[in-house]
Description:
Helices cover about 25% and strands about 25% of the residues. The protein is of the alpha/beta class.
Amino acid sequence: MFEILFLGTSASAPSAKRGLSAQIVSHNEYRFLVDCGEGTQRQILQSGVGFKRLTRVLLTHGHLDHILGLGGLMSTFLRWEAIEELEIYGGRQTLDRVHDLLYGVVLRGNQPPMPLRLLEIKPGVIFETDDFTVTAFPVTHRGPDCLGYAFEAKARRPFLSAKADELGVPFGPERSRLVAGETITLADGKRVTPDDVLGPLERGTKLVVVGDTGRTDNLVEVARDADALVIESTYLDKEADMATEFSHLTARMAADLATKAGVKKLILTHLSRRYREKDVLTEAQALFPAVSVARDFDVYQVKR
């Protein structure tokens, strides 16, 4: 299961109720900050999650409404908060801009208060543990190096408790060994193999997060069968020409992508302050009923 906490859901400029782009994706002990718009540190504090273990930042692109909060965050780490390390992932030009912000404006000759790594990434797997991966993929927006991120739990074979009970497998380490792929021998001499108690391979939970983009045709396969798709919805269809001009999506375009990709849940974010939330929702629901419009501090649990 993945959990996503929305810290900022406004497009371009904040509104009275919406901060700029930022969200935290969590899985077990891992936490990823996806984008860091102006004011993100205050949103982190107000949400109650704090800075602990928030050591990885994934940037979708280098526009200021997605990175400017890194300056304030670094300033706070210099004076008030402690963190063990900080890794910032992004494309080359995005990281160049972040470097200018952090080293040229905030630090100005000082050293960061923690090990700081700016990690240039290309499309492909950028982070992996025993049970999930994070994959970067290209998106089309204004400028190079624009990325989205897919969080995927690894495929697994479910443990069939009823079958194990039938075979007399006791609760405890024996079952753990079977899940790990070992054959065990019971007290009566009976051998039990993993195939005896494990079901067919099932794909894991999939969460896809897209920042700003002006196209969806190149995202259908990466979003295919996602349990949740988080994507921008800056405009309504009545201003589709403006969306095209500035390389953004309308709510209708996002819903069309969700339909074509067969996603289970669509979550819209990055809303222009010119629109009412209910109008964005209505436009998307006309094509794809399983849609929500994220608000600041909303939390969604994403599972199979």
